[in-house]
Amino acid sequence: MSDLGGSSRVERALERVRNPLGYGAVDRALVVSSIGLIVVVLFSLLASTLGGWPYLPENADPFLREVVARASRWLAVPWLAVAVYGFRMRTRPSRVGSIALVYATCQLYALTIAGYAYLSGPFSSPPWIAFLGGAMVGFILFDKRPTLAGIATYAGVVGAATVGVQLGWIPNAAHLAGADHLDVAGSWRLGLLSVLFSTLTLGLVVNLVSHWRDRERRLEELAKTDPLTCLYNRRFFMELFERELEKARRYNQPLSCVMVDLDHFKQINDRHGHLAGDQVLVSAARAMKAGVRTTDLLARYGGEEFVIVLPLTDAAGAQELAERCRRLILDSPVIHDKATIRVTASMGVATFPRDGVQTVDDLLSLADEALYRAKAAGRDRIAFAS
Question: Catalytic residue at 216?
């Protein structure tokens, strides 16, 4: 049994590696920040121990190498901070925090590449390639706004540096290295032209990638949502539930599951027709969506049955949220052919680790048993796993 569990974990890990577009915004930012941290640490080691890092002039003196090493070491500090914050967001998710993490990641990447563009000499080609490649990855992994903000920061910093070099406010890195054999004449014009060329290139790329992203997003939504209620479908929900329960087990955190069933739904279909039944399902889904938190998972489990997963929530918190959803459903009657259809819901609640189960199937089973007790007790109420 343990081998099967280990194999399942390996498969899930491999699937995550194969499908980075399936990550949430926090995990995507965490991947980028981890790579950024590794890169700046590697460049620091190359500059300080291996006689210089790639694309430094061959005759770069020790002073420039030390500048690169120190810059890389200092850059490692904010990259480490962003990575640590990303791990914190995984355990304590926050919508505002995840947005801030994505913006910070894009801005830090832009500043890092701009810094290396200056330290490489007269704005050599490798940082420009890294910039264009990073912008492409940004448009694929993140929304346009944080990526465009990073592009604006990069262009502004590099443009300011090229003007500063030309006006003598800051030294050219190639001059710092004593690289007299390099042609630095007109490098500031080349730098500004490169900014302009890259901006025009990215403008074309943005349109192409945005179109592709919109299509991929539509396909992804179709694959993971119920077409009627626009809630998560059962298959995708089970994947998310597995991740949340695994996280709760790892960090010894409470997690609750609420099974919801609309009362007398068959009678509604028989009396008012299936179109009215669909309206009832949509109305109940909308009511529960208004009652849950942004960190909760809400899905259509099948037929008139729904399920809610509440991370970081004990039995008392689950009761409070379930009661709020029950009242919202009760207060959302459906008008169909001039008939008012009043809807009630029965709910069953199970909580990890209080109820002594360790798997998703067992937690769902306990919540389902509690749901049937709620129905047997008169419906329109909440029951708990015993």
Answer: no
